[in-house]
Give the backbone structure.
Amino acid sequence: MKGKEMDTQNINLLEGREKQVYEKTAGGAEVDIACEKTSLSGSVSQRACVFCGSRVVLYPVADAIHIVHGPIGCAAYTWDIRGAVSSGPELHRLSFSTDLQEMDVIYGGEKKLYRSLIELIDQYQPNAAFIYSTCIIGLIGDDIDAVCKKVAKEKGIPVLPVHSEGFKGTKKDGYKAACLALMKLIGQGSTEGISKYSINILGEFNLAGEAWIIREYYEKMGIEVVATMTGDGRIDAIRRSHGASLNVVQCSGSMTTLAKEMEEKYGIPFIRVSYFGFEDMSKSLYDVAQHFPERPDIMEKAKEIVRDEIRKYYPEMQKFKAALAGKKAAIYVGGAFKTFSLIKALRTIGMSVVLAGSQTGNQQDYKNLKEMCDEGTVIVDDSNPVELSKFILEKEADLLIGGVKERPIAFKLGVAFCDHNHERKIPLAGFIGMYYFAREVYESVMSPVWQFAPRKGGAQ
Amino acid sequence: MLLRHTTKEVKEREGLTINPAKTCQPIGAMYAALGVHGCLPHSHGSQGCCSYHRSTLTRHYKEPVMAATSSFTEGASVFGGQANLLAAIETIFSVYDPEVIAVHSTCLSETIGDDLQQITKKAKDDGKIPEGKYVIYASTPSFVGSHITGYANMVVGMAEQFAKSIGEKNDKVNVIAGWMEPSDMREIKSLASRLGVKIVLFPDTSDVLDAPQTGKHEFYPKGGTTIAELISAGDSKCSLAVGCISAEPAAVALDKKCKVPFETVDMPIGLSATDRFIMALSKAGGVKVPDEITAERGRLVDVMADMEQYFYGKKVALFGDPDQLMPLTEFLLDLGMIPAHIVSGTPGNRFEKRMREILERAPGANFRNGAQADMFLLHQWIKNEPVDLLIGNTYGKYIARDEDIPFVRFGFPILDRIGHSYFPNIGYSGSLRLVEKILGVLMDRQDQTALEERFELVM
């Protein structure tokens, strides 16, 4: 391992993980970080499974029912845990399961799935149904495609199988399975009346209402948003989304597959954006405006929004920046693209990044990450609590940005925390989101509680 | 109105579960295993299972939860998971260095047919388990029973695979804890010590899932039943199983293996069940109940008497896990309340039979457990016959909000409040806390809704 030779004794890396950790140093040779590997058996990985990937992508479609075909756990653990909000129907917040029992495993669960679907559709009158297959469905050989076809025919709504058996890959494969299901809807609706100046917002899940913020910016620019996928999602909007002129893709890990498919099939180009931080947020408005050069008014409007919004929030943020300047952050989130934005956003408020990692980054992501990071920054792929704790302490981070499993680790270490995953309670996207982000980081880092919660076991 | 779709008319469903009142076995096994000192739970299945269980336990306890996974891939599911588990055991001992690995299966590994006993034996034979270290296992297929079953199975694993008899009985009493909070396990230890009974408590998640902030992330916090204690359980003079569903199977296993006679008691929730627990523990330990505990009991009775008018005739809907629901229902009856609707997703005839007995004092009460005994059904029942109070885990908040019912959080999981892992829910003091919580929500409601002329200062 080059860059800097990692002292495996000192930081206790999992054997076989040395290539998934890298420390940027001056003059260190270029090295490719190993990623897109399945986790080592026996590791305390922070990662999830294929089903998890599919479930998080499709979950926010609010006027469809989401039924988990398998034993009860997979439905129970994903019941309303993501704050993907809806402006109307809220079917997505309920938990439906076929709750397979031993006899179903032996004799097959198709009949139970069929009956469950009929009962559900009669009860809830949804606009579509997604059927997630869990681990054992692949093994017991249920033909869920056939069941879906039959029910779709009988009930006259799209009934879509999602092949998300947990073990058949990583969370990313789950994203793909979800995109496949969405592709079956896209193209089914009428595109009549859709403006030439229109987009789809992809990979925005409306956590804490973020999609609404983004949508409003674009609409102010004079752009029609045909569908958001999948935040505050609706089946009809998805069905006619092939009428949009451009796909704007955030959370590229989950939705690039869909954007590529739509490009191939419907000739819709796509751009990758991020809505975190002033810099990336502004760019995501400009990039869309640039797509419509014949309408300079759109660009004018975009500039106006950026100007107004930054004028509104930038001064307020100076207070936070003054207090946070020089503080150090560690980032461990799902997708690598989010890490890029966070590094930039943290720089805006005067903070540096000492640890940057993701669960699902690819080779190119890590290359970019290395270029972006300062010297001394540790970069990790598919990390675990031991590593995270060690690096946070060694690098003397003041803040950890992560998800549900990382939060209590930060607090035990006496380090501030910001949830940048699905348990965020306030919108972090958009200009106002950057303000909220800075405020949340400020409030956590400056909390008086840390004076009672020593770091490093109380050692100075 | 998140649950606006819930209809009043109750129709038998043939397949569907809506808003479950249970979850799957492996999380119970993981929770139980965390109650062994220096133990790393290991999930033999896909990566997602482990991640979901850790996240759920973390949301409930606001604590880091460590567990490893076999990280099944497509290959493993074709050729069997033996290679994954063997590799995992090796990795875990070399990197995370636990005293024990507690392996539980999942629906995936069970359906493939992985035999944990055989694989762990092979690990031992192949020298993958270092001297003085242990690997225990429990079969926990997700398509059988519930999270409670998984807990019980892992505790059986502890009893069967650790306890040894050297043939000489000591004067200790095994107290086998059913699924309860770390605070409850702490309370059991405190009660035993005040009674003067020496116990071996297992599992014991206190000082594991309620660990103090120290500035360090302790991978293995200081709590948990030690291996020495678990081994010695085979020579204890008797066992007390606290909970007939989640604890008794381990007591039976211990009796079978090491001839340790046992008695099963309800979880000490409420007055009557705590009385029985204290009597059983003092009898097992051959001690008299000290005045101090009698006085604690007296204080609970005193409050029950002082406040009886606020309880009397109030209808309650409750849901959760069997070992809690049985004594809790009894306690509500002792308070003069009317248990009206009760559901538990956990199946089982014994539970059903016992509930029927308890509910003889509440004719007309709706009770269902097992298939389709879910939150949807509970809500329908409530729509048909409204109640004054709802008791259950966090998932009750949807019904409480939609139907505007005072709500006391109790059970697993509690994702939106703290306290459950710090203050006991059992014993006389835990029961007093429960009384306080029930009164709190009922009296707040009365204050909020009373007409101005009936708005009372003194209650």
